[in-house]
Amino acid sequence: MPSSAPSPARKAPASGSGKSRDFSSRHSSASANHRRQRRQPTTCRQFIFSFSFWIALLTVLFVISLVWTQGKYVVSHDNTAVLLSQQQEEWMKNYTTSVIGK
User: Fold this and answer.
1) Which of 26, 35, 38, 89 could be 84's S-S partner, Cβ–Cβ 3.0 to 4.6 Å?
2) Where are the transmembrane segments (predicted)?
3) Where are the domains of the chain?
4) 53 vs 95, residue with greater confidence
5) 82: Cβ–Cβ under 8 A, 6 or more apart, which residues?
6) How far apart are CA 5 and CA 60, in angstroms?
7) 36 or 40, which is more confident?
């Protein structure tokens, strides 16, 4: 009988270590699931949000640039936008007035 008493005592740490192994396996499984979730492709909702965010940002920057330059861009003969200087702007105003006045 005395020999059977130490036997469960020896098994207790073994089951305890089994629990810790179970915990670590659960932990590694959870981290593996976390890694797996990171690799998922972007969802449609995320893509739409990202796309609309960049469109809104570019629109705001474009409006700020228009306000900053006060719309003084003109398209030249080679289809490039040119920022007019004060002198060129005055010339354009006079030229337009003279052409429309005729």
Assistant:
1) 89
2) 47-68
3) 1-40, 44-70, 72-102
4) 53
5) 73, 74, 75, 76
6) 79
7) 40
